[in-house]
Design goal:
- By secondary structure, this protein is an all-alpha fold.
- Helices cover 78% and strands 0% of the residues.
- It is built from 19 helices and no strands.
- Keywords: Cell membrane, Membrane, Transmembrane, Transmembrane helix, Transport.
- It is found in: Cell membrane.
- It comes from Streptomyces galilaeus.
Length: 426
Amino acid sequence: MSSVVSARSLRRAARETVSGLPREFWWLWTSTLVNRLGGFVATFMALYLTLDRGYSASYAGLVAALHGLGGVVSSLGGGVMADRLGRRPTMLVAQTGTALSVAALGFVHHPLAIAGVAFLVGMASNASRPAVQAMMADIVPPEDRVRAFSLNYWAINLGFAISSMGAGFIAEFSYRAGFLIEAGMTLACAIVVFLRVPESRPEQDGKNMTPSKQEAVGLGTVLRDRRFMGVVGLSFLVAFVFQQGAVGLPVAMGAAGFTPADYGMAIAVNGVLIVALQIPVTRFIQHRDPGRLLVISSVLAGYGFGLTAFAGSVGLFALTVCVWTLAEIVNAPTQTGLVVRLSPVHGRGRYQGMYSMSWAVAALVAPLTSGVVIDRYGAEWLWGLCAVVGTVAGVGYALLMRGLPAEEAPAGRPAAAKADVEVGAA
């Protein structure tokens, strides 16, 4: 009897998790999943350059840095495009550009050419993120946004987990095949957007908005928004901590005598937990105070990595991964929802672009910092630094979230609410 009740409860929970979201959201979610299922290059790029092409580890690091720099440049550019040209055109341009540049990366051989194309890949692949997040904010009612962002984050991690497993097998057959498969999957993502995802950018017509107000939201507006820029700064600190799972942790484990396979087993816990827990945890947090959630997740992330200083076995490393992964599960949808809450409707692209840039900059800074700290002072100092940074971020969120503006009233999506949104079919 209890098993029947449990099964019914699970089915009801699943229905409540996915029900009530617009059809356009699910097509956008599908395009995200398709895109991440083909995300092979990020997984085996370093191996391709060092093992297949014979370049040094330093050169592979330079290429990775240029890829990240491209993401920094395009985060703001993609946000501006999303507001000016529209969400859908920005995604189509970015995804088509990603497909072409990734395919080209499989055929270029000169070091300068590889570095240049890697920069273009970083630009193109990051340019669509502000548009995707802005579109979700456009089409999903306020009370459902945390749930929608969580489902999208779940799709990203599910696709990445599957593609990571497949990347090793594909690399053994042909690295070039991996590049071409990713290009094909990214192009398929663009086709889904072209055929099924309508434009959602709020209209700016003379009936509802004066010309001065239409032009009121620019990058200067974003930079002058003190509360939001404070959130961006704190987001950078949190992103710096989370980046250590990919940059500081493997280096520290290697220096301690653990093998790449050991690191693989420990970090795999991150993807497994996100896929398993993201949806149920979101059901628990979606209507709770975002400020409190961000304080808790920031401190939990910092001390989760801080505990790594005491890990001496693969099992203990995996346990620390469990701690900061829970922080990641709470932080990701909550922070994205907060960005939407602080963004003016006609500036969502720019605001999301600035937020995306904080993560892109962290992806550049984290490898440099972790390497210097580990080399000069030892890994224990890096994990101590993470604990301090997480604590600072938590205190910052506690201060910034005082007097947080009330969230916009839920739109029942009657005719009056729909009037502000373009629903142009493909």
